Amino acid sequence: MVKKVVYFFCFYFFLSSIALQAQSKFKVGFDMGYTYSNLNANLSNLVESKYSGDYGFGASLTGEYTIRKPIFLKTAVSFLQKNYTFRRTGSRLGWYTKYYNDFLSIPFLVGVTVLGSADISQGLWLKIAGGTYIEYLMRLQRKGQYIALTENRYKKVSETYDFKKNENMLNRFGYGLQGELSLGYSFKKWTFYGTCNYQYGLSDISIANTNKNRQKTIQSYMIAAGTSYQFN
Known about the structure:
Porin, ten-stranded antiparallel β-sheet, 1 helix, PorT family protein, signal
């Protein structure tokens, strides 16, 4: 995992140096919106159970270099809530746990402007981008209820996970693939835009899992609106 993170950073700084040497135009932006996430997991060994998606909040501080029309590089520092719920079904209906996960995410994207110009001072544009991301799980909170068999009733649970003990052997570092679609309108140096991001997790949420068939990964969407400023 550490080697992969190092490779990502080396690749990013290499591309950034090319952009700077080319004296490309640089944009700084900020956007915020909603996330929707789900945990993909094989539950064939656990009857009457399922994971369902849940909503959260997201915000990103972005940076973008135009290398050569219409190609650009983009990165960001993003706060993303990737929330999901574990539910029991059938005879165990009513037993559930909601997971509230706060991530710090950094994508490394290469994109192209498919409508309009990458550096127009005024007008409509459409961009697509794709690449990789790395992330760090800053905080995890669990809320829900379960059946206390000895008392024959439901018990409520609400706790913030202790990563110092890390009893469930959770993996705080993750990585995956990311795609982005953005639509905006530029007014001279200012741009207002809407964007949709999709993150496909490749890393297991558990560092103890050695069975690839039992891998648990997070997939997440984010729809946001924001504004950016372009420097010459």
